Amino acid sequence: MERPTLHLWCAYPDDLLQEEAAQACLRLLDEEERARFEAFKFDEHRREYLATHALARTALSYHHSFPPSACRFKQNDYGKPSIDPECGLRFNLSNSLGLVVCLIANGAEVGVDVESRERSESIAEVGPTVFSPQELAQLEALREEERPERSLQLWTLKEAYIKARGMGLSLPLKEFSFLFGGSAGIRMEMDPGLSDKPERWRFCLLRHAEHCIALMTECAVTPELNVWEARPPSAAPRQLTLPQEPWFPQV
Question: What pTM value is reported for the model?
Answer without folding.
Answer: 0.97
